[in-house]
Amino acid sequence: MPRESLYWFVVFYIFAYILQDVEMRNIHAPYESPASQCGYLSCHPTKPNMLNVHLIAHTHDDVGWLKTVDQYYYGSETNIQKAGVQYIIDSVVDALLKDPEKRFIYVESAYFFKWWREQTSVVQESVQKLVKEGRLEFIGGAWSMNDEATTHYQSIIDQFSWGLRRLNDTFGECGRPRVGWQIDPFGHSREMASIFAQMGFDGMFFGRLDYQDKDERLMTKNAEMIWHGSANLGKTSDLFTGALYNNYQAPEGFCFDILCTDDPIIDGKHSPDNNVKERVDAFLDYAKTQSKYYRTNNVIITMGGDFTYQAAQVYYKNLDKLIRYSNARQVNGSNINLIYSTPSCYLKSLHESGITWPTKSDDFFPYASDPHAYWTGYFTSRPTLKRYERDGNHFLQVCKQLSAMAPNKSPEFEAHLTFLRETLGIMQHHDAITGTEKQKVALDYAKRMSVGVRACAANTRNVLNQLSVKSETSSRTSEPRADYLLDFKICPLLNITSCPVSESNDRFALTLYNPLAHFTDEYVRVPVSHYNYKVIDNNGAAMNIQILPVPHSVMKIKKKILKAEYELVFFATNLPPMGYRTYYIEKWNSSENFARPNVSPKKTSSLTVIGNEHIKLGFDTNGFLSEVTADGLTQIISQEFLYYEGAKGNNEEFLNRSSGAYIFRPNQNKIHFVATQVDIEVYRGEIVQEVRQKFNDWISQVVRVYRAKSYAEFEWLVGPIPINDNVGKEVITRFTSGIESAGTFYTDSNGREMIKRRRNQRDTWNLKLNEEVSGNYYPVTTKIALEDGTARMAILTDRAQGGSSLQDGAIELMVHRRLLHDDAFGVGEALNETEQGEGLIARGKHFFSFGQSGNRSGISLKATERIAQLENMLPAWQFFSNMKSYNSEEWLTSFKNIGISLALPKPVHLLTLEPWHQNQLLVRFEHIMEKGEDVLYSRPVQINVKSVLSSFDIDDMRETTLDGNAWLNETERLQFVPDSEQEVYNSYATFSRSAKAIHLLSAAKPLLGVKYYDEALPSGQLGAESNRIKRAAYTERPELHKDDQAPGSMAADFTLKSGSDHQQYTIELSPMQIRTFVVTLSHV
Ligand SMILES: [Zn+2]
């Protein structure tokens, strides 16, 4: 495109963007011209007979950590950290424009687009040029560099989709990242690898892995590998993955940034300080050493760090000299070649080397940076922020769906939705949801969430009013109304039974919006101030209800807030797929037929049992859970709360590590009981039965079984954790069964596939464990389970937590932690959360499932758990409306209920439905079962998209990569070839004994150095050598579902009936497959 028309396009584009109305018929913006030289075409040439050193100029810009997002962006609070992202991008762009040789990568879209919006069109045009020529390259590209342990796959996919969409809208094909860049997250999940692969990425590099694993991988040249991201999806989930040599820092002595104190290269010919020879010698030695641990004649050296390049010319000037003086030695026989490069150019060189690579099938958890620093505390840190993030995702999905189905779209919809999208993107950052930020930064995240949810609630209120008001009621206008008939308020404090609308009105309506594309039945709890109510459904039928008093421990928190003393419970059935049903709730003045809920009389001599025909729980005379009957099995199963004392030390050497926001390190691995006797109250009703346990003054729990559910709920409440003994405490819940699990248990990977864990063991090296408790902790995003030949026990969580099985048959989950010391990884504060001067109280739910592990009639327990997991993550959203102006008859005739989607088969989840470009929807379907989880539900499923989304007028549909920003059939990925079995064996046989370096990562966050002493980590003692016999070659390769479609497949059972003209809309999903489509709607 000629220059001047490009200019006008840019101007038009910006204008259009401001209007939030940019029309993008093609996924790729039309910036790309044949002259584009971005991506692999822009790489500087390497020299085939030399060691090519790829210098990566980069900056790592945390989207909040010690400072808030805005403080980092604008560079305020310099006393905390000298970090201003706006200066980084300013100065890098200047430096790049001056010299076409230079390269830079940028990662965090949250910051980039904040900056972009502030630029003049002239600057934007220059940046377009830099991107088009591959001089500025986006890498990673998501809204933030997400954590991989505590994040849910839905939110990871969402925040990549949004970051990549903004890049695509702005820069077209050249803005699309090819490589993942997870340099700082504290361990790496297999699901993340799978997601990258499905988004079409060619590879991924990261910085942090267990120090023993790293040692082993370097010694055996296995630090770069093909990672099998899924046990279900085959090759489409394979990702080339590289562990960086020096985390993401510059080699020691070569940080030329203004934030560092290393010497510049001094090349004055006669300067007494001239250090060219010495510096170049040192750098080339470093490169040579590094190359010994990698397979090709290329090495990648990261030249940057946290918030580096605020004065880019300082770094670049020295890199220029380093390159010039190093390469000048080639005329004298040096065979080392330094180039400005990017991770994708490095990856291209690896690909072109034509060699084969090792493979990996497990994950990189937990991460240990030294023998006593297991980064497993952050799996639980800040439990209430972790839960809030889940709530935020829940509402984001509701808001997306309702915004997509709005008959009339208000101009502000897109901005509101985008604000919540971007807030959730920020929340996934590896110092946000992880709980490893400073307290005031955590508060800033919470505030953003609150604003985001409120903004989107303006959309949902508008849309629900449009949808529910019958035409005669609002015949005056088709415009979205400014004054709404109904409030559709949201109540963010329902978890402590608090909601102003239901507590203070005698008549109100509860609208349950079901974000799943299945019919659901749900037990609903509503805060109310009295015990006389009637509830009628949208057909005028009275509902059975049960009233329960709010638990004492919850009343204690609420005292300061509101007055609901009761919870009204009823069973809402047949909630339509992606639709809603409204209930009219009215206080009843007659006191007949109503009575205060009563506690069942106390038993003192025998078992207290609650339950239904599916599951029964027995509690002993001391008030503890003691046995469970389900599925025809009865087992002794106990549940209790315990705590570890957080280790306390000065952090100056490994042994003196404190437990903190990142690190879980219990004092002497000792466990403490919180109670020997538990006070209980029992409530029995038609709808739910509850045992309310009080363990002590700061731990209580409601254990409940609903009439029709096959699992039990354990709603725990922990806090304020006492610290008057000056000891930090880490509280766990533990379920102990007789299941003979033989050291094996299973945890989920970001809420999707389950990964097998073995106590005191890692799959790929001989583990030497110095921390037997924390070294066995794994991230549990949604589920932890164990089983033997007979029985299976699983716990589903409502937020990410750390979990383990430290004895056979036992599962523990850490629910809350309060610590008094910093663990010296940079945050500089103890994790001591308080609220109104007292320790923070956390409340949450565990869903407990138990039954037969095999031979079960009906669907398997695993499949039941998957469905329960989905329904508990995305239950119906509760909207409350004051009904002062409508009695129940008026209400019945004035409003309507709708469902917009046809019900999908149970194993299929409509993962995404959101407004995309104009007249477009982004839609994702997911098969939620793994292979073999259930005889019926694990089969491939066919659905017809047009039938499912029958209320939309669909014109066209095209499949994209997982992120929704590239057409699937136009996406090609670099293919890497795995080692043959013989090569796997040989690579161990050539293990070099002479390698003497133990490449222990400096685990400290940069800028805040912590001193480490060498604690007995001499060469060879980490078991590298002996591992080679035990390590198995990975020959078992999962294949795509094609094999499963043997004749007789019952996929057709699930096939929705559809006319033949709908063939193009019929899709098939194999276990764990997600398929993403951009659906184009007809203009109305
Ligand atoms: Zn970071």
From TrEMBL:
GO CC terms of this entry: lysosome
Cofactor note: Binds 1 zinc ion per subunit.
Domain of life, per lineage: Eukaryota
Keyword Hydrolase belongs to the record: yes
GO molecular function term, any single one: alpha-mannosidase activity
One Pfam family in the UniProt entry: Glyco_hydro_38C
Family: Belongs to the glycosyl hydrolase 38 family.
The protein's name: Alpha-mannosidase
Species annotation: Drosophila guanche
Higher taxonomy: Eukaryota, Metazoa, Ecdysozoa, Arthropoda, Hexapoda
